[in-house]
Every structure is written in C-alpha cells, then in structure tokens.
Amino acid sequence: MDDSGIKKQNWDVKETELFLEILKELDMKKCLDGRKVRNNKLFKVAHRRMTAAGYHRSVDQLKFRWKLLKSAYYKCKREPDSPAPTKIQGWWRYEKTMIAIMESRHPLVGAGVNSDRNDEATEDSDGDASMLHWPQPQPQPCSDNTTQNLDLIIKMDPEMDSQLKIGFIGAGNMAFGIAKGILSGESGKKNLGNTGREVLSEGVKDLTVVSTVGNVLPVNVKVSAPSSRNLGRFQELGIAVTHSNVEVVCGSDVVFVAVKPHLVPLVLNEISQHITDRHIIVSVAAGVTLATVEELLPENTVAIRLMPNLPCMVQEGALLFARGTHAKQEDGALLRSLLHRCGLVEEGPEAWIDIHTGLSGSGVAFVYLFAEALAEGAVKMGMPSALAHSIASQTVLGAGRLLRDSGKHPAQLRSEVCTPGGTTIYGLHTLEQGGVRAATMSAVESATERARELGRKSAAGGRK
Ligand SMILES: NC(=O)C1=CN([C@@H]2O[C@H](COP(=O)(O)OP(=O)(O)OC[C@H]3O[C@@H](n4cnc5c(N)ncnc54)[C@H](OP(=O)(O)O)[C@@H]3O)[C@@H](O)[C@H]2O)C=CC1
Ligand SMILES: O=C(O)[C@@H]1CCC=N1
Question: Locate the Pyrroline-5-carboxylate reductase catalytic N-terminal domain: which residues (predicted)?
C-alpha cells in the first residue's frame, strides 16, 4: 500500500464514526479471523470506502486506529465503574458502536475478549498494525454471504443503492406486498421529506429520520416458504427464493416474519440460534406481541412489531410499528426509511398495534366490502357489472385521496356532497337506517379483539 501523500493528522469525530460504521457493516468480528490476508482485505475495503467519502487514511492507519479503539473498549470493559482514560479523544461517542461491534453474539466474541486483554497501544506511536492479534476462527452457526463479500460499498444516500439485506420468512400476500413496496421506484418517495423530519401521531414524540436506506435492490432480498406455490411472483421481481428460513436469516440484516400468527413460535424457535446483533427482526403477524417474540428469541434481540396492510403493494399502505425492548430509535428510523415507499409509516405504542390491525390491516377489507356493495347497487339499478366495479373502485380511490389530501374531517366532506333535499342525503339516510356506522365501528372493535385473542393464543403456543 502506497502511503505517500497521506498525512498524519488527528482523527475527527465524523471520520471515526464513519470508520466504525463501515467496520460494523462489514461485520468486523466475523471477518477478522486471524488470517492476515483476509484481515488485510477487510481494511482495504474500509480504506476504499473512507477514501470514497473523502477521508484519506492508509490501510495501516486504519488498522492502527482500530487497535486504539479496541484497546479503549477493553479498558472500559475491565473498569466499567471508573474507566481509565483512553487514548481516544471523546471515546464516549464511539463506545456504543464499539460495543455493538465487539459484543455481537458471535462465537468469536468470547475468545476475542480474553485474547485481546493486553492489546493496548498509544495514539502517538504509528503502531505496527501487522502485529494485531486476532482470535482463531470458531465454528460458525451459518455461512453468511454478506460477510464474504468484502467489496460491498456503503451508500447512505437515499438516491443510491443500498447494501442492506432484507429477508422474508413466509411468501404470502403480506410479504409480497411489503417486498413490492420496498422495491418500488422513485414515485413513492413521499414519506421522507427533504428535511428527513416527520411529525408523528399525537402522543408520539417527533422523530428525526436518522437513517436513509437508499434503493433496495432485488438481489439483496430473499424470501423463504415451505412450498414453491407462492415463490414465482417474488422471482419475477428478481428476488431470491429458498425453502430454508435459516438461509434467509443468515443472509439478511432485516428479517420480516410474515407467517400466520400461530406459526410464529415455530418459526422463531427454528431461527433463534442464528440471530445476532446485526439483525432486526420485524414481525407482521396479527396479534403476536413483542413480549412473545422477545421471549422466543435470544436476549437483547432487536425486535419490532409492524402492522402493515395490503396497499403497501401500490405504495399506499398504512403501517404502524412499535419497537421492542432492545430496538433503539435508530432501528425504528431504519425500518421507517426502508418502508417509506410502502406508504404512510407511523410509530406508536404497542397497545395501538391491535387497534391499527382492526382499523387498517383488516380495514382495507371493510372498504372492499363497501366498494363491492356500491357496485352491486349499481348493477341492481341496471349498470353493467364491469363498469360498475370500475367506477366503484375509482370512487373509493377518489374519496380516499380527497380525504387524505384535504386534511378535512370526513363529516365536513360528506356535508359538501349533500345538496339539501338532494340525492346524497336520501342515500345516507338509508345507510344510517341500515346501521352502517355502528356496524363499521363494531367491525373495527371485533377485529381488534380478535387480534388480541390471536396474541394470547400465540403466547400460549410459544410456552408449550
Ligand atoms: N394479508 C394481509 O392483508 C395482512 C397480513 N398480516 C399478517 O401477515 C402474516 C402473513 O399473512 P398472509 O401473507 O396474508 O398469509 P399467507 O397465507 O398469504 O402466507 C403465509 C406464508 O407463510 C408461509 N409459511 C407457512 N409455514 C411456514 C414456515 N414454517 N416457514 C416459513 N414460511 C411458512 C406460507 O408458505 P406457502 O407459500 O408454502 O404456503 C406462505 O407463503 C400473518 O401473520 C398476518 O396476520 C398483517 C397485515 C395484513
Ligand atoms: O385477517 C388477518 O388476520 C390479517 C391481519 C390484518 C389483515 N389481515
């Protein structure tokens, strides 16, 4: 490596943070296995990425910086209550990321902690990085394509391609809806404003979007299901398919669990031992609580409960998620960024997820029923069925868009349609006589209650 022209100068915060993010993305602990050639390759990749981001450090400088960071980490680990000063200025800023890198539940970690105890260095020596000592490789729970591919490029820009690996366990309607939404093009980019800031629902704090995932590529998505019957449509999108849930987990950073609620315990038991700190597990199963999911997965697993709905497929979904005990704000931001093409994405307390299931997950079916009934009314009055259905769907679409875009209360818009003594009020009167309002409220209520019941059942299933 030619280091000429690369000056020795102090590392700044941004540079160090980027370096650590790169190492984290490359799954540092997994890649560094004591084999010099492979270790060198990892630092070369980091060097390329740093250079691309405008930070010019030689491979040896990167190795030495890593050695210092590691040494600071071990110091703090040895003396958690009153850590000795480290050679890294502003160490506290990097501590969390270092812990994430060093304490991933990977077989190497235990060995690494012991063997690196004396691995300390001073910042002012330029350090012979080739002296770095790394533990020998241990058997790994699963092979991982991501970490083999050291030529990945981190692209944080939302306009650019993302290297995030997405997995779906279950290849049904909802998995397909989310996959289609995630892979959809630019036109859906409406939920992530220029400022990257969004105002959330009442009762939820504003959240700055700290993650912009970028364009997810079909090659970075994998889906599993026991049979092939649903896999074809994923393949048509360029998505890789498999019958192995473990393969999906091992090759993904974000894993959507999209099987029927009663199968969630079975699936989580199957994948549990393959989950590491790199993973965000997102359950979309109706009713299944975060407590159930977390109980079935290793301690500290980052779990998120998401309730999407089918219109994700056309980028008009309404999605609500709640973060689990170990899911940080940035995990939520990453999910939000990943899903922004699926439609409206909101975060809320878990208690709202079952309600959202009734309102929106199931609610789309209530709207379809209404659309169908509208069309059938027209057929009864003599209109050809195809035309009646086409007009009914456009009516629902138009009413929905106007409702959303005008920001008006539905009662206000309804009154704007009603001419006194005109047609609409006659029709509305008939609907009220039929109890449509009470029936609709009861539908949301029953669907919510059913979600709660499914949650209790899956919790009991998980305990068996
Ligand atoms: N449909 C919707 O509108 C919504 C659904 N949800 C939730 O999404 C989840 C999935 O629902 P939906 O997509 O409708 O269901 P589907 O029946 O369409 O799909 C279920 C999928 O799970 C697969 N599967 C079954 N057993 C396993 C297993 N052991 N490992 C891996 N995959 C398995 C099935 O495989 P195969 O293809 O071989 O049959 C199928 O692909 C549910 O929990 C539901 O509550 C949430 C919001 C809305
Ligand atoms: O009917 C169901 O159980 C799922 C959850 C919400 C929509 N479909």
Answer: 165-287
